[in-house]
Amino acid sequence: MKAIVLGSAAVSLMSLSALAADMAVPPRFSPPPAPPPFSWTSCYAGVHGAGGFGQKDINDTAGILSPTTGFTSASLNISGYLVGGQIGCDYQFSPNWVVGIEGAAAGGNIGGNTNFALPLLPGDTATFKETTDFLSSVTARVGYAFDRWMVYGKGGVALVDDRYNVSDIMATYDLDGLENRLGWTAGAGVEWAFWEDWSVKLEYDYYGFGTRNITFVDSTISGATGPYNIKQTIQTVKLGLNFHVYAGP
Question: How far apart are CA 229 and CA 117, in angstroms?
C-alpha cells in the first residue's frame, strides 16, 4: 500500500514539474539598439535664392564734372535679388561642434538709381545708376549642432561685379564704369536636416567692399575719362537647399 502511495506521489510531482516548465515565464523582450546620433560630417552642394540691399556712395574727387556741372557726390540705396549655388564640406566633433568651408556664387540684379540737380546747369538733372550682377564668396564657418538643427557663423573673402552710369537729361555727358572688387563677408544662419541627406538653411550675410577709385568713360562726343571714388556695402538674406553626401546618421 505504501509503495502505491509513494508511486502516485512521485508521478504527481513529475506532472507538476512538467506543468511548471510549460508555464515558465518567457525571456524579457529586448528593444533594438538606438540609432547612432545624426552627424553633420559630409560634403554637400545646393542652390539658393536671396534678397539683397545696400548702399553706394560716389564722389567726383578728381573734379571731372564738378567744375562745369556742380556735381560732387551722390548716394543711393540699392535692392534686388540673386540666384545661385554653393558647395562645401563640414566636419562634426566634440560632439556638437561643426567646422566647415563653403564656396558660393550667384547672379542677379541688385541695383538702383538716384536723380540730383546740377547747380551750375540750370534745368539739367543727372542720374546715377548702379547694378550689381554677380556676387561670390569663399568662407569658413563654425556651427553648434542640436541633432538635426545647427546654428552657425561664417566669414571670409568676397568678390563683386558692378556696372555704373552717370548721365544727364541734356546729354551733356554719359559716363559708364565697370569693376570687379574684392572685399570681405561675415554672416550667420540656421540649418535643418529635414529628410535623409537633405537640409534647408536661412542665412544673413554682410559684404564690405570698402572705397575704391573706378575709371568712368564718357560715351558722348567729349570722350572724357576719369576716376570716381565709390564706397559700397551689400547685405543679403538667403534661403538655401543642400544635398549632402555621406551625411549622418
Answer: 20
Q: Are 98 and 145 in contact (CB under 8 A)?
A: yes
In tens, the pLDDT along 103-158 reads 999 999 999 998 877 777 777 888 889 999 999 999 999 999 999 999 999 999 99
Q: Is-contact 58 230, C-beta < 8 A?
A: yes
pLDDT tens digits, 147-178:
999 999 999 999 999 999 888 888 777 889 99
Give the type of residue at 128. F
What domains can be seen in the chain, in order of their start residue? Answer: 39-245 (2.40.160.20)
Integer CA distances (angstroms), 73 to 59, 117, 196, 207, 228, in order: 4, 11, 54, 22, 9
Q: pTM score, two decimals?
A: 0.82
CB atoms within 10 A of CB 211: 10
Distance between terminal CA atoms of the chain?
75
Q: What letter does residue 203 receive in the DSSP assignment?
A: E
DSSP state of 34: P
